[in-house]
Input
Amino acid sequence: MSELLKVVEEEYKDARSKFPNFKSGDTVNVHVKITEGSKERIQQFQGTVIQRKNINTNGETFTVRKVSSGIGVERIFPIVSPALEKIELLREGKVRRARLFYLRGRQGKAAKIKERVRVKK
Output
């Protein structure tokens, strides 16, 4: 049984490596394959990553939150899902926590996250 788990982990290691390194507070644009009947299309979900769970495992997931028409929408994505086309890292946030659930109770300017400044060497 453990050999089977090792084979599966090796198979999904490549799937994890094709995505950029991101963490809580980062703004990402997730491209998801949506199947409607016989048609397939790509839908984009852009928002702030509020948590990552089970990092570096096959059960790794991340939650993205966005505000659409004044209503907060959260979506949980498994990182090894075949439905994920790509993840674009748009902004890197400067946060001091791993889980940003406090953003749920904030609105407007109070819900903004400072951007981390990257120093080029």
Observations:
- The two ends are 47 Å apart (CA to CA).
